[in-house]
Amino acid sequence: MRNVLFLCTHNSARSILAEALLNHLDSRAPTRRFQAWSAGSSPRPGQQPHPLALEVLQRAGISTEGLHSKNWDEFAAPGAPHMDLIITVCDSAAGEVCPLWPGHPASAHWGYADPSAGDAPDAVKREAFRQTLHAIKRRLELLLNLPVEKLQQHLLEETARGLSSH
User: Fold this and answer.
1) Residue limits of the Phosphotyrosine protein phosphatase I domain (predicted)?
2) Does residue 43 lie in a domain region?
3) Which residue in 32, 34, 37 sits closest to 15, CA to CA?
4) How many domains does the chain have?
5) Residue 19 domain-assigned (yes or no)
6) Confidence band (pLDDT; 50, 70, 90) for 3?
7) How far apart are CA 109 and CA 2, in angstroms?
8) pLDDT of 87-101, one tens digit each?
9) Is 165 part of any domain?
10) In which domain, by residue range, is 76 found?
11) How many helices (H) and strands (E) would you count in the chain?
12) What is the C-alpha separation between 82 and 80, in angstroms, rounded?
């Protein structure tokens, strides 16, 4: 099984959506190929997943159990799960200096606009979260449908980066 870590600055919206969605989609496959986690470079003290992220996931029939905001240092510490692929989902996290990940995992950047940004009414933000979830789902479905040979460590980074244009 390949371990995937989704990164964003606060780990409250896009990375949470990606973690929950990949685990949900892959759990429906005949054989599990992925385990997803998410983390942030600088979650705020007491940071929790954005309520609209959780709402949109629940409305889509995706479990939110166990989702919580985490600092990315947890995944660089001894004893943390070995990551095979790290995907940044926001531009600011992509530009930050990441920890040294054990095992030198493959990496890719899939940038999405922050659905929680600005002071739009909740209905507008809810739609932004829904659209972001849909965009992430399109890329994850491509990843899930890759042939096994494309998931070999030396090809994983090239393959994941190729999905950035979708």
Assistant:
1) 2-146
2) yes
3) 37
4) 1
5) yes
6) very high
7) 17
8) 999 877 556 666 677
9) no
10) 2-153
11) 5, 4
12) 6
